[in-house]
Design brief:
8-stranded mixed beta sheet, 4-stranded antiparallel beta sheet, alpha/beta, 12 helices, Alkaline Phosphatase, subunit A
Amino acid sequence: MNSFRSHGIAALMALTMVCLQPAFSADDRPNIVFFIADDISQDDIGCYGHPVIKTPHIDALARDGMRFDNAYLTISSCSPSRCSIITGRYPHNTGAPELHTKLPDEQVRFPELLREAGYYTVLSGKNHMFGNKDRAFDRITGGGGPGKEEDWVGHVKERPRDKPFFFWFASTDAHRPWSIGNEAPKYAVKDVIVPPYLVDTAITREDLTGYYHEISRFDHYVGLVTAELQKQGVLENTLIFVAADNGRPFPRCKSRLYDSGIKTPWVVHFPKVIQDPSTTESLVSSIDLSATCLELAGIEQPDCIQGRSFLPMLKNPKTKVREVVFAEQNWHVYRNHSRMVRFGDFVYIRNNYPKQQNLCLESHDWPAGEELWQAHAAGTTTARQQQIFANPCPEEELYHVLDDPHQLVNLAGNPQHAATLAQARQLLEAWTAQTGDSIPANPTPNRNDPPRIEGGKILLAGKAKTKNPHAEMPGASNNASKINHPGPILIHQP
């Protein structure tokens, strides 16, 4: 455990829990459709301001609904993120906190509570949580097509008409490798916007065009489903969520706790409740989806769910249901144990394995990553790009998200921010203790040898030692999968 845990927890915050009351009667319960994309950062959606990527259907949902500007995932890694969302629990509390670990059978999935209450439930597309049969869903299908989206409309058409429905529509867009088709626009290299932490080369730009295309393809299928709901006359009473499981599959994004990896698009369309379309800057966590859906369905929230309903925000965008969000990053091919706290205008990151480079396959196995490593070997990287190669990593990072949207200027050592740093430490200490998080004594080792540079040459990653070398999981020593405490939600500012 880090040394920060032992100081000041008791004097930190007041935790406020709410008892959920049914929002609708049994005969007018809303339908629910959850669209979850794969590997898309928040600012790569049109309604969030991207000037090139075309997402007209998601933009329309946001225009007539609510756009959440400060929505955070609990982890920037595919399967742990999905397991966290479906249980309403932090990854280390699910029993499946690392990539390619399956959700334990004893963990409650919120769709199973919907199903028990009479909802027709379907998961179509990327699963990554359990097998092709699960008690939470009446049907589980592979989705079809390059993005696993082709049977979505069919599910809407074939649903029983005497039940409310819950659809978990999970795309593999925009996961690598790219698959370019005719369902979405193809983008020109010259129009690409290269983030400052990548090298601006023709190869990087070409790589980004594939990413852009797959985002637009995801949007295309969102539009088809929305049109079918409209055709059936049920759009008014259907709650639509649009989100992603982690950030873009590029260096310093996926598997990292910066906004590029952990901040998700979060668009909600629900005409029955959202009377005045708007945006909200209030914080929300992906574990809050479960509590929100259950409240809307009139189902009592079980103790195992750590999230809280954001239904009040849909009625008033200025409402705050939480003042702090937490995220974690664990093994994702490479060993990792990082933790994040977002509160106010600040993000705090604690790297518990500082004596190693934070890597994932996207940081070197694909064109943009390879270009970055080539520049690193040649000594031509900028200071912003060089941060990716930091070894050791800083133990603590603190960023002002408004002044520094890419989180490039670490304020942890700035005396002017000492009070903010102390508060961040206290928040993380409390969450760690209350949720049973732990640093494994026998952590999962790297699956691959990381790349390195010797004599100006890049030595590529070695072959996988084992396919899934899982060892001790975070939280296992504290039996965290049995702990239901949500950690801090509301805080008292000094």
